[in-house]
Write a structure and sequence with these properties.
single chain; alpha/beta; three-stranded mixed sheet; 13 strands; 21% strand; globular
Length: 370
Amino acid sequence: MANIYPKLIIDALRNVRYPGTGKDIVEMGFVSDDIHIDGMKVSFSMMFDKPNDPFIKSVVKAAETAILTYADPDIEIKGNIEVRTKQAEQPKPATLLPQVKNIIAISSGKGGVGKSTVSVNLAVSLAKKGYKVGLLDADIFGPSLPKMFNEEEAQPYLEPIDGKEYIIPVEKYGVKMLSIGFFVNKNDAVVWRGAMAGNALKQLIADANWGDLDYFLIDFPPGTSDIHLTLVQTLAITGAVVVSTPQEVALADARKGINMFTNDKVNVPILGLVENMAWFTPAELPENKYYIFGKEGAKNLAEDMNVPLLGQIPIVQSICEGGDKGVPVALNENTITGMAFAHLADNFIASVDKRNSQFAPTKKVEVSNK
């Protein structure tokens, strides 16, 4: 039997480079000082900076390979590396939305890119696939959800549950939804300070009976304001979807939006980008594509920032008409845009599942005391 000792393991791990830095994982301090050896079984932990580090799985796999290659091929190592992070994953309030499986931020750094249109049609597409979906209009100063669902006259009511009154969301097309637009006159401007707007959103989240949901989509306001921080600090957000057009001026703001979610203070993974208004297609000429806002700008940004491109949504007149009439185009999967949103929903589901798999709790290694 080979003589296995800690320095042999450390020296093997020096052959593993962290992507993008050129430094080995020992030099970077990723290998914790807790190597335990029991015969040919080796276990230890690795410390990463952030729980949403995209290279965790590949680095752990490389570490396993390095030990078998440079130390001893008979070492038992697979599954014996515990992953830890210096930053805790986004805190999960124990009592807030406990019946919701995935909370999704849909955001854009810039207004006018069709973020609400994407939010509404993604929600409808998910509901059509049989999922339980909730949609919150977090744009306090420009709520559009009531109009886009043709529910401007809806008035959510209160229902007592276990001695407390809860707001019952409006439900249409299989989507439960709430918006400040249901509670104010549609012709009146909402003139509130940031704290008041934040408190109103908290009430729509915590004091509503959302029930069991597979996906709770939050249509964020444009930009990177204190409302965004309020939401990410209040909720355990699964991940964010960023919407942009191919236009350079929109892409510049999309980069800021991505940075807002991935910086150390917020620390929310990016599930992917959606390129809205990707091209113009006349309904009578469905094979024709006219790139009036530029070509594949968001697709290129997704590649540059190493995040998935979830979908490209073309401009077709029916999108505008559907939004104005309160009949989302995703209801009809036989149309160009209906198929585009159905494809987006499929990619979105896969990205959420991948994220949840990546950040599932790591099984702790049981160390033998022999």
